[in-house]
Structures are given as structure tokens and as C-alpha cells.
Amino acid sequence: RPARGQIIFIDQDPGIGHFDQTPETLTYTIPRSDVTVLGGTAQIDDWGMDIRPEDYDLILSKVEALWPQLDRSKIVGEAVGLRPSRSEVRLEVEYIGEKKVVHNYGHGGAGVTLSWGCAEEVANLVSQSA
Questions:
Q1: Does the CA dihedral 89-35-23-68 come out positive or negative?
Q2: Which of 8, 30, 97, 103 is close enough to 38 for a disulfide, judged by CB 3.0 to 4.6 Å?
Q3: Are 108 and 115 spatial neighbours (Cβ–Cβ below 8 Å)?
């Protein structure tokens, strides 16, 4: 199942990132070395790859409630992407013949948040002997 995500890029640093992954209030500011990512949306079963003005406005209104100093004149771009989603993350080992396969997917819009913990768990699973 796809989860459509729309984000905005801004050339402004909020000082500290914010991430609220509650589906009804999904809001984040993720500072990167070159821009800050503002988001977002997580629209399940939506294959649309178009930039939607209503999502743009919603993202900005949610972010501005947390970051009143946001300067809209510093917005430098937008993007839309599709992520695979499922009802829960799959993080487990499966043996196919004698080969160990570690499954780690289904993070949906929480990939950035879950990446560190999941990567550590994957490393632990890989290092364990059969």
C-alpha cells in the first residue's frame, strides 16, 4: 500500500528539529546540512504524485504553529514521494535455505525516526549465529 508524502524545503534553520508522527497531526521540521525539511503528509492508498496546494497550506500552517519565525520567502522547493506502508514494521530474520535474510521494512512516514533503532536491531540480528 502506498503512503503519499508531500514535503517542503526551506533555507532556514529552526535551531532544533521537531517530529510529531501522530497520523492526525503529522508535523516535522528536520534540519539538514543544506535545507530544512518541513512536513508532512502520509496519505494511505494515494498514488498521486502532484504537488497539492491544499497540502502545502496545511503543512505550513502546522509548522508555523510550532515555529512562528518561519520565513515563507526562504522556501526553496517541494517534493512528493510514495513510501511503502503496512499496518506494522516487519523486522525479523527468515532463513531461505541456508541464507539468513533480515527483513526491515514497513516504516511508512516514520522511517527517519525509526532508522537508528531499526539499524541497531538489524546489526544485532545479522551478527547472531544461526
A1: positive
A2: 8
A3: no
Query: Which residue pairs, CB below 8 angstroms and at least 24 apart, start in 119-123?
Result: 121/91, 122/91
How many Å apart are CA 37 and CA 12, to the nearest integer? 10
Model pLDDT for residues 4-58, shown as the tens digit of each residue: 999 999 999 998 889 887 777 889 999 999 999 999 898 989 999 999 999 999 9
**What is the value of pTM for the model shown?**
0.76
Q: Which domains does the chain have, with CATH numbers?
A: 2-84 (3.30.9.10), 90-127 (no CATH)
Cα radius of gyration rounded to whole Å, the chain: 17
Q: Which three cell numbers stand for residue 18?
A: 521537531
Cell of 40: 508532512
